[in-house]
Amino acid sequence: MLKLAIILPTLNERDNLAPLVERLAGALDGPLGADAWEAIFVDDNSRDGTAEEGRRLSQVDPRVRVIQRIGRRGLASAAIEGMLATAAPFVAVMDADHQHDPALLPPMLAALQAGEADACVASRFAPGASMEAWGRPDREKHSALANGLARKLTGVTLTDPMSGYFMLPAATFREVAPHLSGIGFKILLDILSTVHAPLRVKEFPLSFAARATGESKLDQAIAFEFLVGLYDKTLGRFIPTRFALFGTIGAMGVVVHLAVLWMLFRAGGLPFLYGQIGAVIAALTFNFILNNELTYADKRLRGMGRLTVGWIKFALTCSIGAFANVGVAEALVTRGVHWVLAAVAGIVIGSVWNYALSSKFVWGRF
After folding, report:
1. Distance separating alpha carbons of residues 191 and 197, to the nearest angstrom
2. Sheet strands side by side (includes 4-10)
3. Percentage of the chain surpassing pLDDT 70?
């Protein structure tokens, strides 16, 4: 009988899969039984054929399953999809890069089954844990700092709320899943700060190993993703996270616009009209690139063709937003509203319009 599903988000980790399945079998077949577990690899359309390797392994071992995601990216959202795709009563999330020891899975499951805890976490900072084999003292310090910040902002008191290796009942996860943000890398922190009643958590000391092969998702804008995740759990209920990012980048675009205009018009001696045109193009391109990389990272456009078409669509949507901005502000001024309030209202309406159209027509899918 199926008892446990291990969810393994992957990105370009083809060579890690077969050895990891062997390690899982070695750790779980004896304590649980050969038919009591399954491994679900959730792959973000890796370039190296990770999903194909997973399907090959599934042909010889039906306990291996693959979810290949097209147009969606991110460790947290991958973990969510994987945990929702199993019938197992317990789910675990761990890395596929061999940094997490599968030998912890049986005692974690035993603790949950015995009612000793509502969730189990493999901690890099609990007494008895070690990161010496990792060989990254710089990252170790960054992890400790991030954990401290996470504890202060969310109220979670674990030694390692940023751990990527944990286990909990599937029913507990399904209850909280509709309320998760799915943003960033730290799904555990998302779960612990979202549940209605605090979970009783048991921590297991983890000997954190060095990565075997493949590409680390945590090296890609980790600081940005971490801050976005914290924002979403603290202020996201008031201003949606994606809209906040869109607006912040728009404000940065204003600075870029003014800087380019100064360089072309004041410093470069070009006519104002030409300087303004250059500034508009520069700010528009700046906003498009940052929104593509950050705001819509899970729907990121790739390839020169798609980027060019996306830029044109973005320019068109922003031009419509500009007309809405001017129209609303002008209408309010003619009705006696103070010009500052009218301008702010126009900016807000234009921003919302640009965000809505961009989400649909630039980064949306039909």
Report:
1. 11
2. 64-68, 37-43, 4-10, 90-93, 166-169, 119-123, 201-205
3. 85
How many Å apart are CA 207 and CA 102, to the nearest integer? 11
Split at pLDDT 50, 70, 90, the class of 302 is confident
Report the alpha-carbon distance of residue 321 to residue 365 in Å, rounded.
21
pLDDT at 365 over 60: no
Residues 225-278: tens digit of each pLDDT: 666 766 776 677 778 878 888 888 988 988 888 888 889 888 888 888 888 888
d(C-alpha 208, C-alpha 166), whole Å: 14
Residues forming a β-bridge with 203:
121
DSSP one-letter string for 98-164? S-S-GGGHHHHHHHHHTTS-SEEEEESSSTT-B-GGG--HHHHHHHHHHHHHHHHHH----S-TT-S
Other Cβ atoms closer than 10 A to 42? 28
pLDDT band at 34 (very low <50, low <70, confident <90, very high): very high
Q: How far apart are CA 153 and CA 145, in angstroms?
A: 13
In angstroms, the CA 31 to CA 105 distance is 10
The reported pLDDT for the residue numbered 225 is: 63
Q: Which own/partner contact pairs does 350-353 have at CB distance under 8 Å and 24+ positions apart?
A: 350/321, 350/322, 350/324, 350/325, 351/246, 351/247, 351/250, 351/321, 352/243, 353/320, 353/321, 353/324, 353/325
pLDDT at 66 over 90: yes
Q: Which of 217, 178, 216 is nearest to 194 (CA)?
A: 178
State the Cα–Cα distance between residues 155 and 286, nearest whole angstrom.
37
Give the CA count within 13 Å in the CB-facing half-sphere of 144: 10
3-class secondary structure, 366: coil
Residue 212 in 3-state DSSP? coil
| Rounded Cα gap, residues 112 and 170, in angstroms | 11
Burial of 289 (0-12, 13-18, 19+ CB in 10 A): middle
Do 143 and 176 meet the contact criterion of CB atoms below 8 Å apart?
A: no
Per-residue model confidence (pLDDT) at position 19: 96
Q: Within 10 Å of residue 179's Cβ, how many Cβ atoms?
A: 11
Average pLDDT of every residue of the chain: 84
Q: Given the structure tokens 């599934």, which residue do they identify?
A: 58
